[in-house]
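Sorry to interrupt, but I need a hand with the structure work. I would like you to pick a protein and set down its sequence and fold. Please put the record directly below this note.
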Amino acid sequence: MAVTREAIKLRLNQTIISVGDYSGAWSKPYLDKGYAVFQVDPKLKTGIGSQGQYLFGTTIEHFVEHGYYLGRNVVGLLLAPPCTHFTISGAQYWVAKDADGRTDELLQIVDACLKLVEVTKPRFWALENPVGRLPKLRPEIGKPWYWQPHWFGDPYTKKTGLWGNFSNELVRNDVEPIRVSKQGSWLMKLGGSSERTKELRSFTPPGFSQAFCNANP
């Protein structure tokens, strides 16, 4: 559906900030609707994206410290901090990561995300992470709402939690998940710890992205 010029003018005054959304997949439905979208990720090249989104190739800590959001009407925050040291699949490494400081490094990113919530006071916000220990390390975020990609038309499994202040009344489009490995999801076949592998694992399913946007305009 085409976006009218009037709708674009109206929504350009409303900003969505999407943290850790390197691919732009989670924020794309908002961009398509005419919102101003800020994508914040250190792997990005600062500038204007091919679809008109504002790209910030910086850490969320730097983004918050320098107030790049000031002067904007921030209506929504999409927060996807790294999960490497929180996910249950890596529980055997938690003790070592706690000891050498890696856990604290990621918690600083989470804390900066929560600081952004505090200073922008958006209409809605959601922080994403897979099943793991994040809610124990930061109990103030409350209880998560869990969802699966195949609930929204993407045929695989990846149980994911959302914390925050948002509507979880998403319209479902259930499909049967395709089993491609012993564990089920194609994600389980991705080996190694390269940046490309991490990007593929963290890619937000488009069906969920659209359903979330529809429920949280």
About this structure: The domain at 5-215 is CATH 3.40.50 (Rossmann fold). The mean pLDDT is 86. The first strand starts at residue 15 and ends at 19. The two ends are 16 Å apart (CA to CA).
